[in-house]
Structure formats: structure tokens, C-alpha cells
Write a structure and sequence with these properties.
7 helices; 4-stranded antiparallel sheet; alpha+beta; globular; 47% helix
Length: 257
């Protein structure tokens, strides 16, 4: 009988050891209203649902226990909308036509500060095609246009590389480092080695290297590199076991209506 009486106390103590997350979201996107949203995170090399809720009158809410801080992604059906760090505290999500942002907790604030800077550089790169059209209309020599815009593109690309590298380096030992590594590698059809990836791995902490996604990607990319260098069958290119193609991406894709 005493053991039974002690059971609620033990359960309460166990619950108190676990952190909890609380997400309050608002959306002005009509396409989201009335739909079910999901929080998904990687488990056993697959994105698995860990929570879900309905969007009602532009509002949604997630809450639950958290045994460890983790990078997750907000989904509608099978479409990834935006990354979210599940950590202790009051997490806020705001989605509208102009901007999608997560905040309220330290890692989410840091992630979306990075994403904002990344998007600014992306917008600058996209603006180059508009600049080219304007310069052509102004009668500027095409060779001069190419030289100028190529120099600008190289400058922007260099800034983007430094931004990504610095952010990942600063977050080798928390979920943001591997999370952003997943974002930048999700653009490739299969794992490859680039100078940026080699630079990251040459400086990485052991904890970062041991992250399941990072470890799998890098090993597979090395095998693919050997094949392409003639040390294996070049027609056989391995895909990473982890779902990089569905990773949360900084360039969020919000359904609009």
C-alpha cells in the first residue's frame, strides 16, 4: 500500500526533471487557417511527428515535455514551413506575408537573427538580375555590366559563406550548428564535399562531428568523392540516409492565398 501511495510522488518528481516547451503562434495567412500544423523532428533518420494542432482564427498552440533541446520544423501536411528550436521557455511564432519568425527563447532568437541576415544577402543576390536589366536599358556596355555584376556577386557570395561559417562555428556544441549545416546541405541532390563543408569539418568540435546527420552526411560525401575521383564506380552515387531534402530551410516557403 505504501508503494502505491509513493507512486504519484515519484511520477511528479520525474515530470519535474523534464523541461517543457510552449509555443504560441499567430498567422495572417488565410491558407493556413483551418489546417492542421505539425512539429516534426528527426528520429531514426526520419522526420517524425512530435506534436500537432489546428490553426483556428489565425492562432495555434503547441505544448509538451522536453527531454532535450532539439531542432524541429513546422509543417503543414508534408510541406516544411519553417525551423523551430524546441527549448524551455515561451516560444512565439509569427507568420505573415512579409516575414516568418520564431522568437522568445535564446536559441530561436539567435537562429532567426542569422536567417534575417542570410535572407538579406539572398535578396541582394536576386537584385543583381534587376540591376542588369536596368544597366542594359541605360545603354551600358555589356562587358562592363558583366564585370561589375560578377564582382558584386562574388562579394555577396563571400559574405554569405562567412556568415554561415561563423554561425556554425559559434554553435558547434548546440543544436543550431548541425541544424544550419543541414539547411545548407539540403540544396544538394546528394552529399558532396565543397570547400565550405571541408572548412567546417576541419574546425568542428567532436560533438558536432558526432551529430547523426553531420556524421552520416560527411561519411557519405567522402564515399561519393572517392567514386568521382575514380576510386569506385562513378555511376553509383550514394544518398545520405538522413532526410536533408526535407530539412527546415532558412528560405521559408509559406503557402499563400
Amino acid at each position: 500500500m505504501k508503494k502505491l501511495l509513493l507512486l504519484p510522488t515519484v511520477l511528479a518528481l520525474l515530470s519535474s526533471c523534464a523541461s517543457s516547451y510552449n509555443v504560441e503562434g499567430t498567422s495572417s495567412i488565410s491558407a493556413l487557417d483551418g489546417n492542421k500544423l505539425y512539429l516534426k523532428a528527426i528520429k531514426n533518420n526520419e522526420f517524425k511527428n512530435i506534436d500537432s494542432c489546428d490553426v483556428v482564427h489565425g492562432e495555434f498552440h503547441f505544448a509538451g515535455l522536453l527531454d532535450t533541446v532539439r531542432m524541429a520544423s513546422l509543417y503543414m501536411d508534408d510541406e516544411s514551413i519553417m525551423p523551430v528550436v524546441l527549448e524551455k521557455g515561451e516560444i512565439t511564432i509569427k507568420i505573415d506575408n512579409a516575414r516568418q519568425v520564431v522568437g522568445g527563447t535564446p536559441l530561436n532568437d539567435s537562429l532567426y537573427k542569422f536567417i534575417d541576415k542570410h535572407n538579406q544577402l539572398t535578396n541582394q543576390m536576386n537584385e543583381l538580375s534587376h540591376k542588369q536589366s536596368q544597366m542594359l536599358l541605360e545603354g551600358i556596355d555589356e562587358e562592363m555590366i558583366d564585370r561589375q555584376l560578377s564582382a558584386e556577386a562574388a562579394r555577396i557570395a563571400g559574405e554569405e559563406d562567412r556568415l554561415v561559417m561563423k554561425f556554425i562555428e559559434s554553435n558547434f556544441d548546440n543544436v543550431l550548428g548541425p541544424g544550419v549545416f543541414m539547411m545548407i546541405t539540403s540544396q544538394y541532390r546528394y552529399p558532396i564535399l565543397t570547400p565550405q563543408i571541408e572548412d567546417i569539418m576541419s574546425k568542428a568540435s567532436q560533438k558536432f562531428k558526432d551529430d547523426p546527420y553531420v556524421k552520416d552526411y560527411y561519411q557519405t560525401a567522402q564515399e561519393n568523392e572517392k567514386r568521382m575521383n575514380g576510386l569506385g564506380d562513378p555511376s553509383v552515387v550514394e544518398e545520405s540516409a538522413t532526410p536533408a531534402q526535407t530539412a527546415p530551410n532558412p528560405l521559408t516557403n509559406i503557402p499563400q492565398k
